[in-house]
Amino acid sequence: MVLLYYNNLISFGLLAASFASAAPLSVHDSKKQPDNCAPVHLFVARGTSESPGDGSIGSLAQLVLQENPEATQEAIDYPAAPFPFYITDVSIGIKAVTNQFMHYTSLCPNSTLVFIGYSQGAQIMLDALCGSGGPLKGGTGSPTITKSQGKNIAAVVGYGDPGHVAGESWDQGTAKADGIFARPAGACNAWANNIHSYCDAGDPYCAGGSNQTIHLQYTHKYNSAASQWVNGQIVSASA
Ligand SMILES: *[C@@H]1O[C@H](CO)[C@@H](O)[C@H](O)[C@H]1NC(C)=O
Ligand SMILES: *[C@@H]1O[C@H](CO)[C@@H](O)[C@H](O)[C@H]1NC(C)=O
């Protein structure tokens, strides 16, 4: 017991020290030199009505950060409000994802990138990369980040994405139906090897179901599998 306690203290100390020495880049400080860029940077988009910050899917981001102690992260800054603001906020969110991505890559063109989004947060990220169902579905219709601009995006994890399309090769989970804001089939083909989109049958938003509880269980059910997949993608991208 005592030994375990001291071991934990020591590893906590080491972890804190490595975070400090990594001197994470502030993306708002354009005077920082590229050698302050983190090798891995995460963008995290919370779900509808969650408080500003990472939201519940921050638990997945934390698992990835634990495996990659020099990695940094930033939350997507968007309103994430529910109906009747949802459609407007998806548009704002797509722009926020795009602008934050463009800003970071202009400073750090060689960092490996990871996108992590839950619910509305998954929709804005995947709409930015793949295009959306069109203006009525809150989107621009076409991608705002091209595959060549996003060549360093190693992994994209969506949980409960309302833009979910059933039967895609990147789908994970048990869903057999489309989400309420489904994008066109194949819209994400360019990113097929980079996306894991988790959606379970019964989810009202990503799978046309009616069970709210399903929409709240993704971190609990899939964080372990998703973080392992992300870490594998990071390793391949850095090889
Ligand atoms: C990014 O990588 C390229 C190719 O290895 C290199 O020439 C360039 O200097 C790097 N840029 C930065 C900002 O590190
Ligand atoms: C909703 O899903 C939860 C979690 O899978 C399950 O325990 C519950 O029985 C479901 N509720 C209904 C009404 O099907």
UniProtKB/TrEMBL annotation:
From the UniProt record, which GO molecular function terms apply? carboxylic ester hydrolase activity
GO BP terms: antibiotic biosynthetic process; monocarboxylic acid biosynthetic process
Q: What is the lineage of its organism?
A: Eukaryota, Fungi, Dikarya, Ascomycota, Pezizomycotina
Q: Which residues form the signal peptide?
A: 1-22
Q: Write down the species.
A: Penicillium argentinense
Sequence intervals crossing the membrane? none
Q: Which UniProt keywords apply?
A: Disulfide bond, Hydrolase, Signal
Task: Note the SMART domains from the entry.
Answer: Cutinase (SM01110)
Q: Which InterPro entries match?
A: AB_hydrolase_fold, Cutinase/axe
Put simply, this protein is called Cutinase
